[in-house]
Amino acid sequence: MHPTKSNGLAAANNQPAETYTQSTKHTDYPTGKRLRKEEATRCCAPGDTAMSEQLSFLPPVPFCPLLPQHGSAAEQALHDLIERDITQLDWLTQGKGWRLASAIKDLGYLGWQPKSERVLCNGWGKPIARYSLPPKAKQAFFSLRNQGGAHA
Fold first, then answer.
1. Are 33 and 26 in contact (CB under 8 A)?
2. From 42's CA, which of 19, 33, 74, 108 has a CA 20 to 30 Å away?
């Protein structure tokens, strides 16, 4: 527990006019002085690049997706996403089932990085997800298909 201090002045309701808690979270350890709020939160301020500078030393994560199992919903979804963007309504009208979101999630687990965007469709009251693949995923699909790539 941190000690509580006040400035010694009393407000109209006999409560201290200003009370603060001294915590080690906002203390400069070498001097032991309490920091102002701006100084204590400076490293976490929006636009501060201290963390991103440290992370920039890491190598980029390689993009190496796996092909889904033959005959799975994820494989059907991948083939559809290579051709065009798809929605759940497209998936239903083609008779491929109710579980497009699950197939897309499986593709994400396999490293395909599918994108989702909420769109309004005619005859549907709320926005639904329209799924797509980034260009690098489409390029990876064609190279994996030509090389007989690894399946999950």
1. no
2. 19
Please report which residue ranges of the chain form alpha helices under DSSP H: 37-40, 50-55, 73-83, 88-93, 100-109, 135-147
Cα end-to-end span (Å), the chain:
52
Q: Checking phi first, is residue 21 left (phi over 0); if not, alpha (psi -120 to 50) or beta?
A: beta
- What pTM did the predictor assign? 0.59
Domain locations along the chain: 10-55, 73-147
Residue the block writes with tokens 């204590």: 40
Over residues 29-68, the pLDDT tens digits come to 455 556 555 554 454 445 554 444 566 677 888 888 999 9
Rounded Cα gap, residues 30 and 101, in angstroms:
53
CATH of 73-147, one of 2.40.50.140, 3.40.50.150, 3.40.50.2300, 1.10.10.10: 1.10.10.10
